[in-house]
Structure formats: C-alpha cells, structure tokens
Amino acid sequence: VLPIVLWGRKAPTHCISTLLLMEDASMIVTGCHDGQICLWDLSLDLEVRLKALLFGHTASITCLSKA
Fold first, then answer.
1. Start-end of the WD repeats (predicted)?
2. Per-domain residue ranges for the chain?
C-alpha cells in the first residue's frame, strides 16, 4: 500500500510541535503548527517511513494522546 497525498502549489511544511511514541515503538505520531498530523512507521533498524498524512485541523496541534 502506497499512500498518495495531493495538495496545492506548496507542500506541507510539517514544523513539528508535538510527538507521540507508541508503547511498542513501532509508530511515531507527530503534530505540527499548521494543523497536520503524520503517522510514521519505525522499523527495528530505526528507519522512519511516512504512513499517513492527516489534515483538516485549522489550529496548531499542541498535544497528542492515545485514545
């Protein structure tokens, strides 16, 4: 599966404002000042790959929590 994301003339900046590391260390979730949330897969050799880009918030993401 390859996620495809479309945006306007400028790519997202993703200036990270908060970070959440999952308990099993398999995924990192980052939030940024322009309202985006990214899900990152983290491999055993510490290679980081973008899994999903979530957008729609209009305010800065300042806190992340597992639900």
1. 16-43
2. 25-66
